[in-house]
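Sequence in, structure out. Go.
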Amino acid sequence: MLLYPAGDECATSGPQVAFAPSNRTAIMNELNSATPAGGTPTAAALNNAAASLKDFGSPLAPKVLVLATDGGPNCNYLLDATNGCSCTQAAANYCCTNYPGTCNFGSSCLDDQNTLDTIKNIKASDQVDTFVIGLAGTDEYKALLNEMAKEGGQPQMGSTTDYYAVTDQMSLSNALKKIAVSVISCKIELSMAPQFPNEVKVYVDGMEIPHDDTKSNGWDYTDDTNMTIELYGPACSQIQDGDEHQITATFECENN
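Output:
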């Protein structure tokens, strides 16, 4: 878990809670002690979060970030406020939308393009996708959050927004559950190619799943190496329902 900013108005850091199993207590302690304040250095925080994922786990394992924000990204000191950029500050004295009046705070400008470029780059370079959750206070940034969600490679399907728009604790919980379930892969890597590919049997929770080379309802190999099988239809939906499941593949072999 990475909270931002860290300390100062636009400061960022690595994750406050590092990767480990059974991390609920550590995460809740950090959340309960946090005081929301400061700017919104989204691009820098995303870079730091992606860096912590880069060398974690198997190179083939999918890696994702879940970005939850209650405002538009800013804190980019390289922006030129005098050009009349969009602003994330409400007070007129600090808002860049008072152009052509003087505005000296580029860090208050909406850091839209840099944030989009960051999300796009960590997907392309680090193979890290980004889910986007817009908390209360982000309505005026709806167009930007939609673009962020699409660049992140994980837009919400079947909704009015590409990002997950939440307004309260219940809708946030539902969005997180939906995201968690969606990243469960229906592909299973085998430790070795079966000697007799047509004699493999696959079970989910003890129930046999039929082999289906039409890839619509059952399982099939993903390619000719026979090193990966994928579940399709109800079998895939079953393992993505958020509950714990046991998946077993049995091989027939020849004893010499």
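Check: The first strand starts at residue 63 and ends at 69. DSSP finds six helices and nine strands in the chain.
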